[in-house]
Specification:
The chain is mostly beta strands. The chain has one domain: CheA-289, Domain 4 (OB fold (Dihydrolipoamide Acetyltransferase, E2P)), CATH 2.40.50. Helices cover 6% and strands 48% of the residues. It contains two helices and twelve strands; from the N terminus they run ββββββαββββββα. Strands 9-1-2-12-11-10 form a six-stranded mixed β-sheet. Strands 3-7-8-6-5-4 form a six-stranded mixed β-sheet. A hairpin with a 2-residue loop joins strand 1 and strand 2 (20-25). The longest helix has 5 residues, at 64-68. The protein is globular, with a radius of gyration of 15 Å. 30% of the residues are buried.
């Protein structure tokens, strides 16, 4: 986990996975799409959910429902399932989540270390606490740069 959890106030896009709320840097978000509206032309794998086309860009689709919540593995998308299209160092990626919950502004003092986080989980920024909400903050760029080794739950 980074030694400095949050250097300055930042906005995070909240989303739900497996009954928990997560957040990623809103500045990385390119667009939001309903899963059913995404034009997919390849669909294989559990976490790497294939390839899709959106707004003139061909991109891989990563199913965080399968990666973060074992119970969601292999579950068909519901009408509420969303895709967050993000720009990371490697390019544009579609990230499948159960649903988007909104944008939250966090100040540095609202982010604390995540209890029980593994040392090798450097994609976890911390736990954001704002207006009664508890949000696990992730560094989407670091998460998308993880090399797949074996099937495992990442958080």
């Amino acid at each position: 986990m980074p030694s400095q959890l949050l250097a300055q106030p930042s906005q995070f896009l909240g989303f739900a996975l497996g009954g928990l709320e997560y957040g990623l840097d809103y500045a990385a978000v390119r667009e939001l799409k309903a899963y059913r509206e995404l034009e997919r032309f390849s669909s294989d794998g559990e976490i790497i959910g294939g390839v899709a086309y959106s707004s003139g860009v061909i991109m891989p689709v990563m199913d965080l429902r399968a990666a973060f919540a074992d119970s969601a593995a292999g579950v068909a998308p519901s009408p509420d399932t969303d895709v967050i299209v993000v720009r990371v160092a490697a390019g544009v990626v579609g990230v499948v989540v159960e649903r988007v919950t909104g944008v939250v502004r966090m100040r540095p003092e609202q982010v604390v270390p995540l209890p029980g986080a593994h040392a090798d989980a450097d994609y976890l920024i911390g736990l954001g606490l704002a207006r009664g909400r508890r949000m696990i903050l992730i560094d989407i760029d670091r998460l998308m740069s993880l090399a797949p080794t074996e099937s495992r739950q990442v958080a």
